[in-house]
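Exam revision sheet. Question 4 asks you to relate a sequence to its structure. Input first:
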Amino acid sequence: MSDDQRDLVVRLELALAAGREAGQLTLAHFRQSHLQVEWKQDASPVTVADREAEQHLRARIAATFPSDGILGEEFGTIEGTSGYRWILDPIDGTKSFVHGVPFYGTMVGVEREGRCVVGIVYLPGLDEMVYASLGGGTWSVVRGGKPERAQVSKCANLAEGLFCTTTVQGFEKLGRGAAYEGLQRAAYLTRTWGDCYGYVLVATGRAEAMIDPIMNVWDAAAVQPIVEEAGGTFTDWAGNHTIQAGEGVATNGLVLEQVLEHTRGCKSIL
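Answer key, structure tokens:
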């Protein structure tokens, strides 16, 4: 095993352990009447569960890899010197979380020299973990069972497939409602099982496409390697392979061009 491969393995191992621990912390607040919701400047919600989970992740990473950088949704950036950067979203789908819906996840991504090389999504309410590392494939663990290889679906026609997104209003707010309407007409089935759960569905072969008109880097970092190592694609709306565009398109690869027919050239008004 090369040094680079060994570096990936040890970081994946920490991501899996710390991600599960952080996700389990959120369950202490899930569906609890005492949960208080605050609103950030961008009008997104945040709770004590978000903060506790990210603090736990940061402490675990700093204790093991003190020279690695960290970017988290709730507590900003710590610069590193190792060439590795951890990108954290302690609760992706906070709106679902505060409504008692279990389709939320704790997300941990790792970049090496700007490329996403490790990603984990843990869905605490479902006890489902999906993870990947560069060249190592994508794997799924459900309720503590044996890891099973995850693969995207083999459906080659969007008209026979499932299209997921996070919110219809997000398309409309950004002046991209026509893209949503076109995708909904083109797909066999449309569901707003969104946030990280939608990307998990693509990576595990249960959906053909997941599209977000707006994303932050911490929303995208973990899911890019997960979808790609499962045989799919993660791009921006123009088909570029990036997590920096502020938007996301995940597909099984076979329906990518069919999806891009609706998203390519559809610019945000913001």
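Marking note for examiners. The first helix runs from residue 3 to 26.
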